[in-house]
């Protein structure tokens, strides 16, 4: 097992071990885990939150709890995808897996075959072994022309992986960088595309069915991208991550599907209105093809209905758990799930001792802070945070 520090990813690799992380090394493991944790190992080993074995948590009333399956199991379930709603996590313990070298890289195709690539990729991932993870990026090539890039990571036997990838390679990508690489180097590979200091604006949803009309919409939107740094990504959620029961963790999106992310980034603040407008228009065009669901780690200030969509069938259970551990909503500067007013008897929370009194030694300091979703309105202010 490994504790929280990001530097542990290099230390565990000294022993040929890893826990599921994100898709770049700049993503902090703490926030990644608390929101779910999609990454290159989700098919074979699950999400980051699925590999969380225990944690140390400071609650709203100042208690320091050691959390694991035998102690505060209800809180552990909530930490696995529930965001920052339940407390301050000061340490994490993770399950580790043997991962050293992976067969990974990128296939970049011209726009003329984009439709064929999207369909071929979708068909491959529907039946591929769990060891294969992918991320499709639709954007502009170095010459400013629309292009489609498929990033692939195979974490099994390389010879088997070569056979599994043949359908995509038969399409004749002019750029094919797939080869054996250390898992650590593959985690670092995308970092250069997300330098610190850029403006970011994201919109996101889950694409479960790649219909012809969904593909048509994607092909119409991509040529309108305003910057070469922006893209629309399709990151697969599949395999082990999709087989976990919906109510086993706070993360509810357990189905074979793609996390569609409209990722706008730019350097000139004077262009913010223009580029935010593009991202919002792109999302509006794609929204009819998306589920009423969103990955909480991709969610901006979009109002309480979108937060509810992020937790879906688990929202009420999380709100009841919030009443147990944070009844006055101290931890609310987040994708906030307010504590439920009463704990429905139909919810199996497993909370030892029932609800806690609605008092908090920290509440006086937190009440003066503004609530991120207080007015329920969407904020278009871009951020400068790197991808997660």
What does this structure look like?
The protein has 388 residues and is an alpha+beta fold. It has 14 helices and 13 strands. It has helices spanning 8-13, 29-35, 42-45, 73-79, 114-127, 158-164, 166-169, 183-188, 212-221, 240-243, 272-286, 304-311, 315-325, 363-366; strands at 17-18, 52-58, 64-67, 88-94, 97-98, 101-110, 132-140, 146-154, 175-176, 179-182, 199-207, 231-237, 257-266. Strands 6, 7, 8, 9, 10, 11, 12 and 13 form an 8-stranded antiparallel β-sheet that branches. Strands 3-2-4 form a 3-stranded antiparallel β-sheet, covered by helices on one side. The chain starts with 7 loop residues before the first helix and ends in a 22-residue tail after the last helix.
